[in-house]
């Protein structure tokens, strides 16, 4: 009869309703099925007869249900899918995986499908069988989805775990095969040729009555873990510049995979650079744990409002922030807090280094205490140096790790020095940020969302100024002043607007420059 689906596991959400089967219960609600200990596995296709399938295609007379109470999802395993459309998709995928779609070497993973019948990841394998033609029986495990990109992005997760399941099955089957092969020569050769032996089920081939229960548990875990890996975000409006920049860091291949932060690297150059330059991006520092500043409001409380205002002023207008300390975890947490004041495109961070890096490489630079700043930057660079140290105090032996970290944060001493003279007035965006941080009635989550909205508001002003500058030809100072009035910005906001242009996405820049050239 050709390839057949013998076992299927699928998630069933509470609001979904299953299609009627050949059993007496014609329609079963998802909630009602969740209370059942088993389900019938009669074929759901209307043309199927109960005696159509041979012993080799049998699985379990009853199915299995696993309930995920947190996600309110039932994972149901049965001989065939309950939904007619899913049955049709899985049936077509089954036929193609064992007939038309064959990967090199016959065994292994392959991808095929279309938008109408679904997209399929098929992992084909064979099981040794002394009674089968060619001494083996071919199977495939299928993952069927309508979302091509989601399935392809799940490939690196699914393939290794499907391989683990297959190795478990074939290992059991090989034990049975070797045992039968020893007994095989004892049978008369004429009898083995004349007698027609029916196909055997997976239970017979593995000599394991619980093999389908094991498959059920394995498939449930794979489906749940795969679903938890990748999440979808609902955008309630046009994407922000930050989200576009995140997308620009991803490169999609023809197969639909996403290469994140892809960059061609010359290995010889990397080895030479790593041998000459000792950066603290080593695994030891990257994984170092210790006390940390939790967010921007926490940093303001530790620094005090006056020091925080000066530091934040340097941040929002693009001056380089150099933090020097022996506590790598503190340095990193300071940068993570300060980054919330800027668009993502304006943040270039070297979190902890053993040598000074120029401001064009990074506007956030962490240094070990032994590094001395080059003399030339004292006159040529706009920066602020923040030195973080600890007050001398004897630790208490009875303190827990959490109490010790809290005590250490209270003992932090911040010293700030800068050759750069700041403008008398800070940008208006900074004043609004500080007002939100000082408002104790606002929770940290509310402040975080407010900063995101405020940054996006000012990025819209930056877009207008960028288009005004690049697309309009020669502009006089009077023209610029009028534009600033229109967008609700003042003279003290100019340094911020100019620096935040670096936060514009490449997509927006190219669009404006292309439009500018075509209009000339």
TrEMBL record:
Keywords: Cell projection, Cytoplasm, Cytoskeleton, GTPase activation, Lysosome, Membrane, Nucleus. PROSITE patterns: DENN_FLCN_SMCR8. One of its GO terms (biological process) is negative regulation of transcription by RNA polymerase II. GO terms for molecular function: GTPase activator activity. One of its GO terms (cellular component) is lysosomal membrane. Residues 35-50 have a biased composition (Polar residues). Its main location: other. Residues 55-505 form the UDENN FLCN/SMCR8-type domain. It is found in: Cell projection, Cilium; Cytoplasm, Cytoskeleton, Microtubule organizing center, Centrosome; Cytoplasm, Cytoskeleton, Spindle; Cytoplasm, Cytosol. Residues 18-52, 269-289 are annotated as: Disordered. Belongs to the folliculin family. PANTHER family: FOLLICULIN, FOLLICULIN FAMILY MEMBER. This is Folliculin.
